[in-house]
Amino acid sequence: MLSNIEMRHIRMDLKSPFRTSFGVEQKRDCLIIRLEGDGIEGWGECVAGDRPGYSYETTGTAWHILAEFLIPAVLENPPASIDALLACFSGIKGHPQARACLEMAYWDFLGKRQGLSLRRMLGGLKDRIPVGVSIGIQDSPALMIERVESYLRQGYTRIKLKIEPGNDLQVVEAVRAAYPGIALQVDANAAYNTADHDHLLKLDAFELELVEQPYAEDDLIDHAELQKDLQTPVCLDESILSRRHARQALQIDACRVINIKPARVGGLSEGVAIHDLCLAKDIPVWCGGMLETGIGRASNLAIASLPGFTLHSDISASERYYQRDIAHPLFELNPDSTINVPDAPGLGVEVDREALELFTLRYQDFKH
Ligand code: OSB
Ligand code: MG
Description:
By secondary structure, the chain is an alpha/beta fold. The protein has two domains: 4-115 and 352-367, Enolase-like, N-terminal domain (Enolase-like, domain 1); 120-340, Enolase-like C-terminal domain (TIM Barrel, Alpha-Beta Barrel). The chain is 35% helix and 22% strand. The protein contains twelve helices and 15 strands. It has helices at 59-76, 82-89, 96-114, 118-122, 141-154, 169-178, 197-201, 220-229, 243-251, 268-280, 294-303, 353-359; strands at residues 4-20, 23-37, 40-46, 128-130, 133-135, 158-162, 183-187, 211-212, 234-236, 257-260, 285-287, 327-328, 338-340, 350-351, 360-367. Strands 5-6-7-8-9-10-11 form a seven-stranded parallel β-sheet. The chain has a four-stranded antiparallel β-sheet with strand order 3-2-1-15. Helix 1 crosses helix 3 (96-114). The longest helix is centred in the first third of the chain and has 19 residues, at 96-114. The structure holds 2-succinylbenzoate (OSB) and magnesium ion (MG). 2-succinylbenzoate is lined by residues 54, 134, 187, 189, 237, 288-291, 314, 316.
């Protein structure tokens, strides 16, 4: 039975700044949770960052929701299954990234107790995940080509470029001209609006695998209007916070691909539900990333092993992100642009307590 939960806010230096249409990240903040009971521990990562750029959630809002509501609900009524855990959350609205963290830690805890890897528990088949790399906005097309070149040399076979108004067609055109054959896609992180409809149609010239989240997160209808005219599949990220959003988006053809981030949709269970829905409708999915530490990366690899994850995921090798990670072993890129899914029980990673302490800004302990 769960008897103790620790939560900490950590901050880690990224190896290089990551720029998107909503801002630049030089350091990454996140929350790490550790569950404990009967001598078993479970780890979870909350991907919410220091400011509400990607979504309304931040480390501050997630801390509040976890400390005041989610953790007390779980300790008051220690769950014996994932369903029981999710039942503890009912009556608490929103804040999917906060819930996802606690759910991840509970999956890790259960897996260790049952001696099963998360991949086995979720029903994943693949043991190597095809992955790509997501490259932040650069100061010029020439610099972007340099970055692309270096990742291709490392062995990544799919490249995603971040774009924004003023940093789009020229960059994509330059990269496509330099590398005619590569799998290429773009991500706007909600930076455009309906006035850009005709402009966005020009992306069809570059044989992109998909265009990710061009419009605002709460704007399914306009995405459907765009998809009507755009030949390239629209892929939704920020807009899909639940299986209901996924169903409705597909119903109105607002997208033809979905980026599944378990953290964004409230956890692995909801992520699997969206996967199942998409598989049944023949909609390809892939796993997005939030610059996770080794903890969240292990979780993403596990869900990406499900059969519907047919496109390359944004799960790059550990060395791309941090000087020092908080979990081991580090994830390495295989020569065929895949990363192995851990097969030890639970998430299958060991947390480096010393590194964790080093990066901790705030800590709190919760007892049954
Ligand atoms: O939109 O996919 C995104 C990182 C932070 C916030 C949003 C996004 C991203 C990425 C990075 O694209 C993917 C990765 O973890 O490598
Ligand atoms: Mg995205």
